[in-house]
Amino acid sequence: MSEEPTVKESTAPEKARHHETIVSGIVLRLRRTTKSMGELSLKGKIALLIVAGLAIDLVADLILLALRSHRGIGVPVVATTFLVAIAISAARVLQKHLVSSGLLSRTRGRLFFVGLSGAFCGAAAALAYLLVPQEGATLPVSLTVGNVMLAALFILAFDLYPQLADRGTPGLITAAGLVIVFAITYMTGISLYIVPYDPFTLNVGPLLSPPTEHFPLGTTQLGQDMLSRTIAGGAVMLQVAVLSVAVCFSTGVTIGLIASYRGGIADRVASLIMDSIFAFPGLVLAIAIAAMLRPGVVNMALAIAVVYIPSYFRVIRSQVLSVKELPYVEAAIVMGARDRDILLRYVLPNVLPSAVVVMSINFADAVLTAAGLTFIGLGLPIDVPDWGWDLTFGRMQLQFGAWWVITFPGIMIVLLALGFTLAGEGLNEILMPKLTE
Amino acid sequence: MSDLLSIRDLIVEYRTRRGVARAVDRVSLDVEENTTLGLAGESGCGKSTLGRSIIRLVPYPGKIVEGEIVFDVGKRIEYDGQAVEPGPTDLLKLPEEAMRRLRGEQVAYIFQDPMTSLNPMMSIKDHFVEIIREHSPETTEEEATERAAEILGSLGILPERMTDYPHQFSGGMRQRVMIGLGLALKPRLLIADEPTTSLDVIVEAQILDEIAKLKEKFNLTMILITHNLGVLAQHADNIAIIYAGRLMELADTETLFENPQHPYSQALLQAVPDVRKPDKKLAWIPGAPPDLTEPLPGCMYHPRCPQATERCRTEQPMLTKSPSGGIVACHLYS
C-alpha cells in the first residue's frame, strides 16, 4: 500500500466508499441515505430533517447553556467531556483495529480499551481537581459521569448502532431507548455546570413567574428557576434507580441461582418468602418500607429494591430449573466439575439474558416508584432539585394556573421511563427471540 | 494383564411410586486392562444404569443398594487433605469429593446425545481449558490449549476451529469434541454410552475407528454400551448380554457370535438382518421384557424362551461356565 493507492483514490468507486464511511452520523447512520439522497422518499427526507434538526438543536442548546452557566466554567466542562468522549471513541476504534489485525487477543483488546478509557477519565478528573480546587470532589465526579455517558453515546452511534440496526425494529427501539437514557444521564451528570441558576437556592427570581426571557421555563412558588431544576432534577431519581437495581439484581439473581440449583428445602423456603413479597402490591410495600426507614437516597433505593427482588428470583428460578437438567450440565458433572464452577460457568451465563431483560424494565419501574415516593413526601428536602418534588408542588400550583411547574419535570420523568422501557423492550426481543416467535 | 475394573454383585434400584424396580440385579463383571467390553441388550434393560453406577451418577430416583465396584486407581488422587492411594479401590466406599476428582481424571463418560452435551455459551477451547485446569490447576492456559489441539487433531478437527462455539459444529463433530473432552485428562477407563446412536452410519464408522485408534494411543480400557450388535462385533473384545437387569451371557466376541449359548443371545443374533441372505425372514423375539417392578420368579427370560422348562419358572439360574468358554446364566448348561 505505498504507491498504488494514490492512483486508486481518484477512481470513482473508491471515492464513493470513502465518502460513505465518513458520513455515518451521530444518531442515524447516514451512510445509505447520503449515497442516494435523491431517491429518498418525501417522508424519509422529512424524518431525516427532523432528526438532524433536533440533534443540532440539542447541541446548540448545550453550548448556549454552557455559555450562560452560573458557575462560569460551563464551556470548559462541556468541552472536556466532548474531548474525552472523542478520545475514548478513538480508543475503541483502535481496539477493534488491533484485535481484527490479530495484534491483540480479544480479552487483551478489551483490557486495553477499558484501561485507556479509565486513564482518560482519570486524567480529566485529576486535572479538574487540581485546576479548580474550590469545587472539591463534585467537579471530578460530574466530569467522569459526563465523559462516560457521552462516550457511550458516541460508541452507540458509530459502533453499536449498525449492529443493532441489523436486528430490525427491536434493534432500533433499543438504540432509541439507550440514546434517551444516556443523554439524560449525561445532562444530569454535568447539570451543575450548565444550569443558569443554582438549583439548590431559593429566591433566585420572582415567585411563581410564568416563562419569561430570563427564566425560560418559569419559576416555582419558592422562587427557584424551573429550567435549572429540570436539568438538575434527575440526579436523585437516577441514583435511586441505579442503586436499587444493583441491589435487587445481585440479591435476586444470587438467591435464585443457589436456591433453585440446590433444590429441596432451600428452594421451598426461598420461594415462599419471595412469593409472599410478590403478593403485596409493589408501591404500597415500597411506601411502607420507605416510611419505616428515614428519607434519603439509599433508603429509597432499599425500599424499591425489596419490592423487585422477587421478579428476578422468579425468572432466574424457572430458567435454572430447566438449564440444570440439560445434558451439558450433566456432562460437566461427569467430568468432575465442582458445583461452584457449574453454577458460574454453565448455569449463570445461560440464564443471565433473561435477568438482564428484567433489569432494563426494572429501571423504568424504579424511576416511576421513586417519583411516586417523592410525590407522597417520602423523598428528600425541598431545596434538593428533584422532579418528584416539583410534581408535588406543581400539583397544588396548577390550580392557580401555574402549569409550568408540573409540566416540565413530568415530561422528563416520562422521557426517562420511556427510554428505559424502550431499551428494555428492545433488549427483550433481541436477547430472547423465542418470545417473538 | 490384570483387571482394571471388577464389579461384584451390584444391585441398583429405582424407587418409583409404582414400586421398586431393580434395574441392575446382582451383576458381576470383570474388565481387563486394554480391552473393550461391550454391553448389549434391549432398551430399558439396565445397560446405561450399569454404566452410570460405575461413576456413581445413577439418575434420581435410582440408588446403588449393594455390591462392590473395585477400580484400579492409576495415580494418587488428593482431596480435602486426604488421598486415594493407587491400587484397587472400592468406588462405592469413596467419599463424594474423591469421587468427583476421579470422574474425568480416571473414568470418563461419553453421553449419547452430542447435540446438547456442550455448553452453548462456551467455545470448544474453553471447554478443554476448563476441564484440564479444574483437575490440575497448575497447568497454564497455553499448555491446556496445546493439549486440546493435539487431541482434537487426532480426532480430525482442525485447531483453528477451537475458538468456535458448539452451534457451529455438526453432530458428528460435536461427538468428536465430546470424545476429545472425555480423553483430555488421559483417563484409564472410558465408558461410552451409545456414542454414535444419533449419527448416521458413515460418521458412526469413522468415529468408532477414531476411538479405536485413540484407545491404542492412550492405553485405554473401554466399556461400550450399545444395542447395535454390529458395532460390538467390530470393536469389542468381550461382550456382555444383559436382559432385565441381569447378566445373561459373557463371552469373547468371536465365541459369542459363532456360538451363542444362552437362548436370548441366540434370539438376539437371529434378529440381526443379514444382507447376504435377503430372502431370510427377519426373526424377532415374541413378547416384551418383563416389568421390573414385579420381578418374575426363576429366569427373567422364561416367558419368551422357546426352550423354557418347569425349572426355569421357579429357580433362578446362576452364572456358570458355558461349554464355549464364557459364562452363562441358563439352566440348560447347569
Write the layout of secondary structure elements.
The complex is a heterodimer of chains A (437) and B (334).
Chain A: H1 4-8, H2 12-22, H3 31-35, H4 42-67, H5 74-100, H6 106-131, H7 138-165, H8 169-189, H9 191-194, H10 226-232, H11 234-262, H12 264-279, H13 282-292, H14 297-323, H15 327-334, H16 339-375, H17 387-398, H18 404-431
Chain B: E1 3-16, E2 19-32, E3 36-40, H1 47-54, E4 62-73, E5 77-79, E6 82-84, E7 87-90, H2 96-105, E8 107-110, H3 124-135, H4 141-154, H5 171-183, E9 189-193, H6 201-218, E10 221-226, H7 229-235, E11 238-243, E12 246-252, H8 253-258, H9 263-270, H10 310-314, E13 320-321, E14 327-328
Parallel strand pairs in B: 3-10, 3-11, 8-9, 9-10
Antiparallel strand pairs in B: 1-2, 1-4, 4-7, 5-6, 11-12, 12-14, 13-14
Helix pairs in contact in B: 3-4, 5-6
Quick take:
The complex is a heterodimer of chains A (437) and B (334). Chain A has two domains: 61-194, no CATH class; 233-436, MetI-like (MetI-like fold).
Structure description:
The complex is a heterodimer of chains A (437) and B (334). Chain A has 437 residues and is mainly alpha-helical. Chain A folds into 2 domains: 61-194, no CATH class; 233-436, Orthogonal Bundle (MetI-like fold), CATH 1.10.3720. Chain A is built from 18 helices and no strands. In chain A, α4 (42-67) packs across α5, α6 packs antiparallel against α7 and α16 runs antiparallel to α18 (404-431). The longest helix of chain A has 37 residues, at 339-375. Chain A is globular. Chain B starts with a strand and ends in a 6-residue tail after the last strand. Helix content of chain B is 30%, strand content 26%. With 334 residues, chain B is an alpha/beta fold. The model of chain B has no long low-confidence stretch (mean pLDDT 87). Chain B has helices at 47-54, 96-105, 124-135, 141-154, 171-183, 201-218, 229-235, 253-258, 263-270, 310-314, and strands at 3-16, 19-32, 36-40, 62-73, 77-79, 82-84, 87-90, 107-110, 189-193, 221-226, 238-243, 246-252, 320-321, 327-328. In chain B, the strands form 3 sheets. Chain B has an 8-stranded mixed beta sheet, sandwiched between helices. Chain B is globular and about 65 Å long. In chain B, a hairpin with a 2-residue loop joins β1 (3-16) and β2 (19-32). The A-B interface holds A 326-328, 330-338, 341, 345-346, 349-350 and B 55, 57, 100-105, 108-109, 111, 113, 116-122, 130-131, 134-135, 178, 181-182.
